[in-house]
Specification:
By secondary structure, this protein is of the alpha/beta class. The chain is about 20% helix and about 35% strand. Helix 2 packs parallel to helix 3. It starts with a strand and ends with a strand. The model has no long low-confidence stretch (mean pLDDT about 90).
Length: about 220
């Protein structure tokens, strides 16, 4: 957990791709895409059916490690609006245990704009919390400090002759985009024009490594 300041608010980046908000004792995650595998299976494309268990297990570990009292999911928490209905019994039990022991808020995204079943918690389109706007997709017209997801940013690096990709946060003066937290999510290059058009070329990719926060200018 590496603490940093965003628009005067102290946050902490976790290497797993989540944010911790110490003042609120809150965890923030984006793009869980629960039951992505079962959605593809309905169309005949078979993926390992363990994505929801893996994602919820990791989230439960972070909740226990941080002792978070709140959890905010910044959209696309399910891969489709019926995703919660398809959860296997074990995954459903884990999710209900999480929503039942925290102040849990689902922010809807483009994949789960209408949730038929959300297994507990409250559902909102967006929220303003202690001066920060929380929504799924960054709004280029928004001038208030904003946290969002949607783009699944990743940073491609060349390390010792090997090309690697690491999920990352993307931060500008007033926007902070979280990486995808889900086990079966892909990613978009952090310097993709779709992202930089919103955050600006002066934005940085942030990667939490042990007790350091590595910063990579996107214009580099």
């Amino acid at each position: 957990m590496v603490r940093f300041s965003f628009c005067g608010v102290e946050l902490a980046a976790l290497s797993a791709g989540a944010l911790y908000w110490p003042a609120r004792e809150a965890l923030l995650v984006a793009d869980l895409h629960l039951e992505k595998a079962s959605w593809y299976a309905r169309g005949g494309q078979m993926l390992p059916p363990y994505d929801s268990i893996a994602t919820l297990t990791e989230l439960a570990k972070l909740k226990d490690a941080t002792q978070a009292r709140e959890i905010w999911c910044l959209g696309d928490s399910f891969h489709d609006k019926e995703g919660c209905e398809r959860l296997p019994a074990e995954a459903r039990a884990r999710l209900i245990a999480l929503t039942g022991t925290t102040r849990w808020t689902w922010i809807t995204g483009n994949h789960d704009a209408v949730l038929a079943d959300h297994c507990g918690g409250d559902v909102v389109e967006d929220a303003e919390v202690d001066g920060l706007v929380l929504r799924h997709e960054a709004d280029p017209r928004e001038h208030r400090p904003e946290l969002s997801g949607h783009f699944h940013p990743k940073l491609r690096l060349s390390l010792r002759g090997r090309n690697v990709a690491r999920r990352c946060f993307v931060a500008s003066g007033t926007k902070l985009i979280l990486p995808a937290f889900g086990a079966l999510t892909g990613g978009m290059d952090a310097d993709d024009p779709v992202i930089t058009k919103i955050v600006g070329r002066s934005a940085q990719a942030l990667i939490a490594v042990e007790n350091r926060l590595l910063r990579f200018p996107l214009a580099a």
